[in-house]
UniProtKB/TrEMBL annotation:
Pfam families listed in its UniProt record: DUF4258
Name recorded for this polypeptide: Uncharacterized protein
């Protein structure tokens, strides 16, 4: 498809800024980059992964709206092949590319008329999309705190995580 219009996601803008990849480099990648993967069943638009080659290699994830000839630039990031010198890290299951790092999350739970917010929960947090993962003991503790709030018939309760 010929992309007459481009729209950039927040993740794409962040990736471009952090790596110094210009809009023109992204346009060139779309026009002449190599498609390395296609996702025709993605919604709301089919998407694909492009590899740009040139003075530096990088990847662009685009979703294509053929009705408006618009390419939605989902993500832009540098391809790093120096795997020997890197620790193995977990990538986010949601966005597929974000690296999970130790941090803190605010967990919001809702059941019927009760809303429980637990702040400062230790978690592995995705640097790209913000998704978080709780270790089993932490998740059990958060769940127990939420159950106690439900038993007290709290309507809204804001708690600080207690180990």
């Amino acid at each position: 498809m010929d992309c007459k219009n481009l729209q950039f996601s927040q993740q794409a803008i962040r990736g471009m800024f952090e790596t110094g990849i210009s809009e023109e480099e992204v346009r060139t990648a779309i026009a002449s980059g190599m498609t390395t993967a296609e996702y025709p069943d993605d919604h709301p638009y089919p998407s694909r992964l492009l590899m740009a080659a040139g003075s530096r290699s990088f990847l662009v994830v685009i979703a294509e709206d053929t009705t408006t000839e618009t390419c939605l630039i989902v993500m832009v990031y540098i391809l790093d092949l120096d795997l020997e010198n890197k620790e193995t890290t977990m990538n986010c299951v949601i966005c597929k590319t974000g690296e999970m790092v130790p941090g803190y999350a605010t967990v919001t739970l809702q059941r019927s008329g009760t809303i429980i917010i637990v702040k400062e929960v230790p978690a592995d947090v995705c640097q790209d999309c913000g998704e978080y993962y709780l270790d089993e003991p932490v998740a059990a503790k958060v769940y127990a705190q939420a159950e106690e709030a439900v038993k007290r018939h709290a309507e809204v309760e804001i708690l600080r995580y207690v180990a």
